[in-house]
Specification:
CBS domain Like; single chain; binds zinc ion; Hsp33 domain; 34% helix; globular; 6-stranded mixed sheet; 10 helices; alpha+beta
């Protein structure tokens, strides 16, 4: 199954609900960064959460999330845009902890003391930035807490990554439900109760259910319709040209230092792991072109 999200809105326009499957892109990220199981789950949840937040954006808008905690993972950085592209990495990929209460210990890896910083580039004036303390370090509740504290939008967020014994991800996905004013308290209570009683996202996906089925389970009899279906993928915006610009920004003297004892320089992208190699001749040419 391809990765995708579906977005629905109620006929009365008071509730927006999104559900997605992200199994392939989480496996892609795991392969690129060589993450161990607990780090895979943490990164996968953050990538999925970023996709859910970006599902509310237009194609030219972007959102970036930085989770900084006091655990061994140190940090998670993810960025997603309104086209379905997402990229991200963790501070320390080699983090694997024993399960806690039968579940992957993501909060043990990230830590529950720290901050979540959300930056949104909506292509209007300045980039909007909001910072909240980590709520639990489990990612989903941290994003829900961010929405309620920083944007005053009551939200329910569910995220799941199922990691097999061999490290492979067999299911990943999530959902986001937001209440828009004027809110109907009875309706919200019903939805919260359904979410509390439904199986986890990964259990549903492993049972063969689709994001559409998860939305139906959440909204049920509330009149609603699907407003978007978007393909999702791990995709990085880095390129050789952009890396070249970063090298030029170091300045001629620094570049001369770098090539004084080396035939070539490898510059890797933190977000996707791609390596761009520049030979001494190319770097010399870059310096000359600046004069
Ligand atoms: Zn990259």
């Amino acid at each position: 199954m391809e990765d995708y999200m579906v977005k629905a809105i109620t006929e009365s326009k008071d509730i927006i609900a999104v559900a997605c499957v992200t199994t392939n892109l989480v496996n892609d990220a795991r392969g690129r960064h060589g993450t161990y199981p607990t780090a895979t789950a943490a990164l996968g949840r953050a990538l999925t959460g970023a996709e859910l937040m970006a599902s509310l954006l237009d194609p030219d808008q972007r959102v970036a999330l930085k989770f900084q905690g006091d655990g061994p993972l140190k940090k998670i950085l993810v960025e997603a845009d309104g086209t379905g592209a997402v990229r991200g990495y963790v501070g320390v990929p080699e983090v694997n902890l024993p399960p806690k209460n039968g579940k992957i210990d993501v909060s043990g890896a990230l830590g529950s003391n720290g901050y979540l910083t959300v930056s949104k580039d909506l292509r209007v004036k300045d980039v909007y930035t909001g910072v909240v303390r980590l709520h639990s370090g489990e990612i989903a509740s941290d994003i829900a807490y961010y929405f309620s504290e920083s944007e005053q939008i009551p939200s329910a967020v569910g995220l799941g990554v199922f990691v097999e014994r061999d490290g492979e991800v067999s299911a990943a996905g999530g959902f986001l439900v937001q209440s828009l004013p004027p809110s109907d308290d009875e309706r919200i209570d019903a939805i919260v109760s359904r979410i509390e009683h439904m199986d986890s996202v990964t259990a549903q996906l492993r049972d063969g259910r689709l994001p559409e089925d998860i939305l139906e389970l959440i909204l049920q009899d509330i009149p609603h319709y699907i407003i978007e279906n978007r393909q999702l993928a791990f995709r990085c915006s880095c390129s050789r040209e952009r890396t070249e610009q970063a090298v030029i920004a170091l300045g001629a003297e620094e570049i001369r230092n770098i090539i004084s004892d080396r035939e070539s320089v490898d510059i890797s992208c933190q977000f996707c792991g791609a390596v761009h190699t520049f030979s001494r001749e190319e770097l010399k040419r870059l310096i000359e072109e600046q004069h």
